[in-house]
Amino acid sequence: MSEAPHEIAAGFMPLLDSALVVAAHEKGFAEAEGVALKLVRETSWANIRDRLAVGHFQVAHVLAPMPIACNLGLTPLAARSVVPMALGLGGNAVTVSNALWQAMAGHGAVPDLGPRAAGEALRAVVRERGRQGLPPLRFAVVHPHSGHNYDLRYWLAACGIDPDRAVEIVILPPPLMADALGSGVVDGYCVGEPWNTAAVMLGTGRIATVKAKIWRSSPEKVLAADARWAEAAPEALAALLRALYRAAEWCADPANGQELAAILSAPAYVGRPAEWLMPALTGHLAIGPDAAMEVEDFFVPQARGATFPWKSHALWFYSQMARWGQVLHTPANAALARETYRPDLYRAALKPLGVALPGANAKVEGALTRPTAVGSAGASLILGPDGFFDGSLFDPDDLDAYIAAQGAAEAV
């Protein structure tokens, strides 16, 4: 460790996918890189966003679209942020109440986490409720500029459900979702772990589908850095990225799963039982009281370029902001979104480690149907599969056409 360590304050939310930042601190990877990492547990994404903006944090575990929204001026206290690293792939799920699942099962839903069958069954339920004059179903997400919101909306729309007219979508902090489901305040939600497993363990809901099946190998949380700090302290940022990469390798080793769950379960971090965390770490999900499934890529901390900040990921999130009326699509706005994700910072920090570094900054999302070797510097790199469940493709070089072709589903 250097004599004068880099002091870095990092905000995080109590979620399983804070694993990389927690492990970097708890397992000594930050210290080994000369980083004195101070972790601050927060209660809402808005708090993290605002504290990053005012300089309380240099970096934070954040929703993957949030730094883009900040750079586009869509949030209060917007401050310029950069994303030099992703914090893994997947980790979200859509959970519904027992009553809603029973209604969906009556229209053909089966406990296999398949997005298409579950979505079509949900559409039938929405139609039936409309005919009966019942109020729209209410779903919760954690933030308007979240992967959860865009995952849920993409799934609903692709299954013929207009997210803005056929259902209601509200905002709730993750720790409140299982209780809201149990009390009937919401009928379903899209959230990260362990709050889907919590509903199953508490007997209040069932997991209907997962992010890993809606859009495979897609990002959920990223490391956001205050752009001013990143520019002023490049050595500190690079040291932190190396520590996080080492933490990702440790988190990805199945032999460390029990220890990681125990660390995360502590009150300072997620503060929930380790048995609530193990399903996501092992991929063995209890999806209901009478059903379980293996989901190999439910949460991927390190393989498949899981920590690489792809510009195509940034642009897909931007396309959804445009689709749902959060931002006007212009060349300038697209450029702001594209430049938020910084693979150049990732490569510069990790090149000395000899790790796999993609040769490209972007890729056609949804094009890989099987694990595929791609051009890389350092070690060899296998990507994919990365498909959308509806078979669509997102070519970041054809952004205008993709946005123009999108639209909400017809109201049902």
UniProtKB/TrEMBL annotation:
<keyword id="KW-0472">Membrane</keyword>
<keyword id="KW-0813">Transport</keyword>
<keyword id="KW-0997">Cell inner membrane</keyword>
<protein>
    <submittedName>
        <fullName>Nitrate transporter</fullName>
    </submittedName>
</protein>
<dbReference type="InterPro" id="IPR044527">
    <property type="entry name" value="NrtA/CpmA_ABC-bd_dom"/>
</dbReference>
<dbReference type="Pfam" id="PF13379">
    <property type="entry name" value="NMT1_2"/>
</dbReference>
<keyword id="KW-1003">Cell membrane</keyword>
<dbReference type="GO" id="GO:0012505">
    <property type="term" value="C:endomembrane system"/>
</dbReference>
